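Re: [ENG-882] Designed sequences occasionally contain unexpected residues at chain ends

Forwarding the minimal case from QA. Structure tokens:
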């Protein structure tokens, strides 16, 4: 990753987010979705770096050179998922048809141990996960870097006054202790593990044919903390349909954080091949070969100091 994702400008826009949210809460969902087409077309025209990132990714996941309509569809699915987050945050899950894999196993596991890791990436809509346990007594707190997606965070705080109460703000190393205390209190924690954190150690793994960097701290936690780990992917399937796939992460004797990170990357890659338009990392994602070792070691060097 030649440029840290935290330095990238958000693809979303405060004006469009506020406008679409106000409309979404007053009009039927199908009519609001019609507005997504001109908005998507606007970003397609005005975001050349995002187009380039989409094209680079789709070349790998589609296994062919993407046309402009492939990139448009990629942007449109992102817009659709972002719109649906408004409905999920305002407890309107009834609007959606959400199916699950291994749901009964997850519910049974939560009954036995309510404190678990739920690990995913910027793939589909993690908010669809709420539909699995919304009628249950379980709580899953996501870890969020609040200052990066400020426009989205402010919007969701407006939509749901309990937003800050239900998340763990990322604050660097001290967040590790807060995550552990949350788990000790019997509350599950959700993390997105497909982006490195600035100035933090990273692991270099293979993803769709080339190297990427993943945050070492997340995989060290799930390796060392005595709590079950689930990998989940909330796949958008068009219309009002979502599919939440659960994959229990098996931790074998002798596994390292690097091995776990590669297992996660392999699972994410398979999801991207199965449904390419669900992956939402619109920045230069893969490590340039001549910078691979430098970037991967950078965080560890800071840690030693």
């Amino acid at each position: 990753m030649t440029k840290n994702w935290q330095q990238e400008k958000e693809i979303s826009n405060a004006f469009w987010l506020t406008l679409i949210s106000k409309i979404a809460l007053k009009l039927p969902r199908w009519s609001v979705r019609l507005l997504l087409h001109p908005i998507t077309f606007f970003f397609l025209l005005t975001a050349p770096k995002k187009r380039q990132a989409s094209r680079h990714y789709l070349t790998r996941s589609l296994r062919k050179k993407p046309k402009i309509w492939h990139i448009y569809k990629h942007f449109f699915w992102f817009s659709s998922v972002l719109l649906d987050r408004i409905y999920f945050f305002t407890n309107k899950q009834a609007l959606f048809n959400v199916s699950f894999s291994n749901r009964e196993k997850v519910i049974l596991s939560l009954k036995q141990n309510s404190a678990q890791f739920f690990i995913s990436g910027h793939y589909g809509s993690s908010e669809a996960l709420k539909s699995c346990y919304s009628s249950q007594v379980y709580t899953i707190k996501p870890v969020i870097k609040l200052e990066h997606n400020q426009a989205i965070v402010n919007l969701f705080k407006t939509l749901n006054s309990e937003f800050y109460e239900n998340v763990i703000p990322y604050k660097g190393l001290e967040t590790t202790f807060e995550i552990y205390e949350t788990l000790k209190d019997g509350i599950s924690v959700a993390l997105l593990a497909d982006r490195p954190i600035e100035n933090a150690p990273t692991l270099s793994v293979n993803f769709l044919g080339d190297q990427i960097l993943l945050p070492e701290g997340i995989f060290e936690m799930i390796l060392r903390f005595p709590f079950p780990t689930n990998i989940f992917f909330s796949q958008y399937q068009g219309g009002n349909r979502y599919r939440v796939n659960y994959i229990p992460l098996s931790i074998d004797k002798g596994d390292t954080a690097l091995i776990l990170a590669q297992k996660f990357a392999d699972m994410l890659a398979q999801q991207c091949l199965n449904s390419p338009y669900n992956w939402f990392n619109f920045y230069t994602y893969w490590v340039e070969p001549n910078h691979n070792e430098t970037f991967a070691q950078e965080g560890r060097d800071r840690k030693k100091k």
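QA comment: On inspection the terminal residues look reasonable. The CA atoms of residues 13 and 19 lie 10 Å apart. Proposing we downgrade this to a documentation issue.
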